[in-house]
Amino acid sequence: MSPLIQLPAALLGSLGFGALFNLHGRKLAFAALGGLLSWSVYLAVAQLTDSPYVCAFIASVSLTLYAEAMARIHRTPVTVFLVTAAVPLIPGAGLYRSASALMLKHMDAFAEQGSYTLLFAASMSAGVTLTTLLFQLALTAMRRRHPAR
What we know:
By secondary structure, this protein is mainly alpha-helical. The chain is about 85% helix and about 0% strand.
């Protein structure tokens, strides 16, 4: 599918999810832009590697940095931006195919799709966790170096 279709879809998907999160105004706009950013990074990395797991990891790192920055700028919890921006990356098709194969008792397809979905989700989780950890360590180091007066 063309990026000209995928990128607006990522933006609209994140926009809709942000609205479900009851975001308004600038917070909603920036949350939706996070989804556009995450899918843009995914597509860009996909041009460099064939691994969807590397793409998911790097896209998750970028969206986590974005969410951390936006949370501080807008004085809002990080999860508001993080979850909304992650929506385009969620492996819903893999989960659907896994469940479908299981229901049809196609165990080989279930194992293949299930392992893809789990590894993709683990890649996303690793990107978010590692970036959050490093971000918090950097903030702690900066606060120790320059304590508030």
